[in-house]
Design goal:
alpha/beta, 6-stranded parallel β-sheet, 11 helices, globular, binds nicotinamide-adenine-dinucleotide, binds zinc ion, oxidoreductase, NAD
Length: about 375
């Protein structure tokens, strides 16, 4: 058994002291895991738009000082009281939303919106005792979405950890702990395109390309990528996107452009932008009679969805999804297996890599809209 069990661990963490200011690598104390908690050593983490959004803290409550990070992979160091499913040495993916396996949502086959462990971006403490497990000289440092992976060690509720195949390379599968699974699941689990169908993907960031990857796996014959940034198109070709539409190149609304390209509309659309106009277009561009649109992007807090009710009466369906409808503990291990079986390709999502000491570079890349995923290596 490791000598750190039951002890406070001192390690490096990237602390966000203030909104929008570069993170500072600090020595933090990480308390041992309490009831139903697990302490893990993070090996790789990546940066997702949600981290940047809450770090910028432009449109939401801010909790600082905080340790961000939620897309990651690690190894269990020790477990707290009541944890029986995980043991030191297990390989895990932390997830920003959880699965308690006991609530009505967890028992429902349809839902992944666990009542106990559903994402909460305002909470900066652990559920068990409403305390933080991070501190610097006794001063609390707050958690982010229950994961805080920008730290060499972190403490996570057992319900937010997926135990995965120990042979899976953690520097690749870490990106399955958020964005890629979200897009992939939105297509495979919610939009469910059939073989030979047409799919429009709005927003060609990592989430949208995860959705495109799902369309490719489902055997869609046409995958239409829609983005305002034409530089996204070159990369998207690697993901099987067959046609591109930049709404800025047309005078008419993009839904009309797509309807003309597809003889009345696409069979499925998946929106991965967070932009309300793109959400409306994504709904209105699906074919009447059978088209299904799925919203994934997180909208501005004041956004309102406006469309004519006839669009529904004409048998178009609008859905929304959270984390691609995957239940983190039950379903994520099988997504890792899809990668291990070479069905799912992950390498093409990874465009950059930096050591932990240069974590701020990952923020700069995302702010410039460059690349898809930047892996942050915790060691060496
Ligand atoms: P990203 O910023 O890398 O990509 C978004 C893309 O959308 C960009 O290429 C941008 O140019 C494009 N875009 C913006 N407005 C557009 C418009 N009106 N029309 C067409 N394209 C437009 O972001 P990402 O990391 O891929 O995340 C995408 C969205 O998914 C974000 O809103 C994120 O918060 C959300 N998200 C949701 C969940 C969930 O569970 N529902 C999980 C993770 C991320
Ligand atoms: Zn639950």
């Amino acid at each position: 058994m490791s000598s750190t069990v039951g002890q406070v661990i001192k390690c490096k963490a990237a602390v966000a002291w203030e909104a929008g200011k570069p993170l500072v690598i600090e020595e933090v104390e990480v308390a041992p895991p309490q009831k139903m908690e697990v302490r893990l050593k993070i090996l790789f983490t990546s940066l997702c738009h949600t981290d940047v959004y809450f770090w910028e803290a432009k449109a939401q409550n801010s909790v600082f000082p905080r340790i961000f990070g939620h897309e990651a992979a690690g190894i269990v160091e020790s477990v707290g009281e009541g944890v029986t499913e995980l043991a030191p040495g297990d390989h895990v993916l932390p997830v920003f939303t959880g699965e308690c396996k006991e609530c009505a949502h967890c028992k429902s086959e349809e839902s992944n919106m666990c009542s106990l462990l559903r994402i909460n971006t305002d909470r900066g403490v652990m559920i068990h005792d409403e305390q933080t497990r991070f501190s610097i000289n006794g001063k609390p440092i707050y958690h982010f979405v229950g994961t805080s992976t920008f730290s060499e060690y972190t403490v996570v509720h057992v319900g937010c950890l997926a135990k995965i195949n120990p042979l899976a390379p953690l520097d690749k599968v870490c990106i399955l702990s958020c964005g890629i699974s979200t897009g992939l699941g939105a297509t495979l689990n919610v939009a469910k395109p059939t073989k030979g169908s047409s799919v429009a993907v709005f927003g060609l960031g990592a989430v949208g390309l995860g959705a495109a990857e799902g369309a490719r796996l489902a055997g869609a014959s046409r995958i239409i990528g829609v983005d305002l940034n034409s530089s996204r198109f070159a990369e998207a070709k690697k993901f099987g996107v067959t046609e591109f539409v930049n709404p800025k190149d047309y005078k008419k609304p993009v839904q009309e452009v797509i309807a003309e390209m597809t003889d009345g509309g696409v069979d499925r659309s998946v929106e991965c932008t967070g932009n309300i106009n793109a959400m409306i277009s994504a709904f209105e561009c699906v074919h009447d009679g059978w088209g299904v649109a799925v919203l994934v992007g997180v909208p501005h807090k004041d956004a309102e969805f406006k469309t004519h009710p006839m669009n529904f009466l004409n048998e178009r369906t609008l859905k929304g999804t959270f984390f691609g409808n995957y239940k983190p503990r039950s379903d994520l291990p099988s997504v890792v297996e899809m990668y291990m079986n070479k069905e799912l390709e992950l390498e093409k999502f990874i465009t950059h890599e930096v050591p932990f000491s240069e974590i701020n570079k990952a923020f700069e890349l995302m702010l410039k809209g460059e690349g898809l995923r930047c892996i942050i290596r915790m060691e060496g």
